[in-house]
Amino acid sequence: MDKTQQDALKKAAGVEAAKLVEDGMVAGLGTGSTVRFFVDELGRRVNEEGLRFTGVTTSRRTKEQAEGYGIKIVDVDEVDHIDITIDGADEVDKNFNGIKGGGAALLWEKIVAVNSRKIVWIVDESKVVDTIGRFPLPVEVIPFGERHVLDRFQDRGYKPVLRLDAEGQPVLTDEHNHIIDLHMEHIDHPEDLAQDLITTVGVVEHGLFLNMVDTVIVGDPNGPRVMTNSNK
Asked: Of all residues in the chain, what percent carry a pLDDT higher than 70?
């Protein structure tokens, strides 16, 4: 699948998801290439249909995009609830376990997600997998002592790589932390891994989002299809 085809599927999923945002809602707005199409459609609805809602964003990038359309954006601590959060995912399996953080926004994404009444992911069909893990698992760590965290992950066989930018410098998250990507290929016991990662000193958060999502909207060549998590 070429990029043009993939973008068309992402856009279809994003436009479909934008229908879920209603007047008066507090909506979490995620981060990533598919979410950009979703926010574009929300902007169209705001300016052409008069949609009025309050947004909480999971990154500064999304905040700038949304505010460019005149969408009202507030800080997550200014609201007492979030009605719905719509975000992307780097992988999702049939058990609704996912990997997020390819855009280095996983910490804010998880904070917004856990404070949301409903979570929807929008993905193109390439992101739906049998077993998560082929996409490198992002782990956000504080810079102080990260070499020891890398060594610990290496000893555990997690194949860690510090994420660098085009200039060869560590990628900085919106909280000025670093990202270590774990190249594990497949994750057979995600709950055990999640527990091991979050209890490692120096780790702020990891990109495993396990059984959190309620609905996944998949951009499919035959039209957007919906996967519903019956365990939620």
From this structure: 100
